[in-house]
Amino acid sequence: MMPATDIRAPLVAVLATTMVVACILWNIEAPTRLGVAILTQQYMALQLGLALTIAYLNFDFRGQEKDRTGWIDGGIALIAFGVLMYAAWDFVWLLREQPYRPWQITLVGTVVVIAVMEGVRRRAGWMLFGIVGLFLVYALFADKVPGRLIGKELSPVRLVQYVGFDPNAVFSTPLAVGTIIVLLFVFFGKLLFAAGGGAFFTDLAMAATGRSRGGSAKISVVGSALFGSISGSAVSNVVTTGVVTIPLMQRGGYTKRDAGAIEAVASTGGQLTPPIMGAAAFLMAEFLDISYFTVAGAALLPAALYYFSVFLQVDLIAGRDRIAPSDVDGLTVRQVLREGWHFVIPFAVLLGALFWLRMDPADSALLSALAIVVVSFLRSYRGQRLTLKTLGQTFVETGTGMVDLILVVAAAGFVIGILNITGLGFALTLVLVDAVGANVVLLLGISAVICIVLGMGMPTSGVYVLLAALVAPSLVEAGIDQIAAHLFILYFGMMSMITPPVALAAFAAATITRDDPLGTGLAAMRVGWAAFILPFVFVATPEILMQGGWAGIALNLGLALIGVGAVTAGIVGFWGNRLSMVLRLGLVALGIVTLPLGFLPGAAAWHIPAALAVVVLAVVLRLRARAGDKTNQGRRTT
């Protein structure tokens, strides 16, 4: 260990604060205003160097946070910092000399590859480490691979020079989006929590839904959706909100398995919900070279259908199991808004800047963060407000919280670089498309399984970047709309969070409920069933992605709502009264047929009749339930 006068904590605080300050200065174009020309890659090298230094100072060999830094980790941190600061300083010369392959680029590339890979192993786990490592090994032996996956011959020196330095590899789009845009949104979220926004949104969810049937679970769904849409991590969302909502659900009458599953599914859905979508929205906009507004608009209705299914399911479970409304201690929406109305201002600024003024996402986040600082210095919520001390802590927490994401997107840059230099990306697309022929449904099914498997154990940004490089091109090549293809891979990549055997979000919830992790994961798949079929719906029906005329959008949204509602009622087995197995199976079958899955043969002819049948059946069941209630009341009075 290093001496007792260990300066790790203050050093990490300085480095983390520097990350945030550098991001702010970059986004207000401070270098340009001062007459200094700096390449984006120089800025990225600075941020990667800071992130690697923090990673090795803060986390031990097992990835656990440590109190002191050992000599070995301290040495790695120093080397990574020094080499990347040199790269940031001399990047223009290095880029100019790259065709001549100088030893300096070999040094930079080697240090970047080794330091990032070990950092990923410590912080993101063996899954991502293994996937990226497999690509690195492939690149070394690509010319010896038999068949159609044969690639270009690369020497180890050429490989590390390209992967660890080139602007088309590590210093490419994923790292740029992470360090320029996502960092500011994480800062925005941290400021919101520090100012009391977490308590405000929890209280708002309790006041809005707590008095209804199954109110405790609805609080979880609403609260987790609000937090998850800006948190950037399903697991951290479970841990943050679950410690409040899961015990609340258990006290309300939900089983611990259902409570854990509901929290996991609600938190995972936040990664699919605009405005931030776990950073995927910004990455998607950059990958597809379209506006953020287009991505957020396309993702809106699928996210609404997802949460409609979850919300309806918790309501029906409450009805089936006779779960009473929650005790919210007289809390009302008016009371919560009266005390915390100032939190509406930053969100109004964010949404107005993004969707009305069409400002750059980074500028919108910076403006919103400034709004939080101003309103929170002026007003408090339940005694909580920003101070200079908490503001400083927010800078540190933002920087340290970004380390994992920066490591993941840097590693994803390795994969993108290897796909480019070896030609593997093109080969994989051809192999997958040729394997399924013209069968789009089979291609989607195989792609869904691949996305779930590759997404296991990875954060949202890493999942999306990896799948956008490996799977999405095959879907686009098969004729699927590019936004639909990229949302498809994102949905199934995120479903790895609730799909055993890994199911990180479900397992995190199980640690709070102290229930069997596998059982919680399976229950989460039941609660989140809609997410496994909605991607097929919006691939088949572009109107669900807000494409086409308003009449078509309204019709298909209505069909989707009826279909999702019918299947959900069939799964729960309740609609006013408990349903027999025959009725449950009938509702599920009718619901599936109602869903606008246009690529199924003859499906279009059945959508509206099936929807009408569902509506009629739902009305009949509801009337029968009411008649039964009146009969029971009459018997009790006599």
Automatic annotation (TrEMBL):
Swiss-Prot/TrEMBL keywords: Cell inner membrane, Cell membrane, Membrane, Transmembrane, Transmembrane helix, Transport
A GO MF label: transmembrane transporter activity
UniProt cross-references to Pfam families, sorted A to Z: DctM
Principal cellular location given in the protein's record: membrane
Top-rank lineage group of the source organism: Bacteria
InterPro entries: DctM, TRAP_DctM-Dct_fused
Membrane topology: Multi-pass membrane protein
GO cellular component: plasma membrane
Transmembrane segments: 7-28, 34-59, 71-89, 101-117, 124-141, 175-201, 221-246, 290-312, 340-359, 365-381, 402-430, 486-510, 522-541, 553-575, 582-600, 606-625
Subcellular location: Cell inner membrane
Residue ranges constituting the TRAP C4-dicarboxylate transport system permease DctM subunit domain according to the UniProt record: 111-546
Functional summary from the UniProt entry: Part of the tripartite ATP-independent periplasmic (TRAP) transport system.
NCBIfam families in the cross-refs: TRAP_fused (TIGR02123)
Name of the protein in its database record: TRAP transporter, 4TM/12TM fusion protein
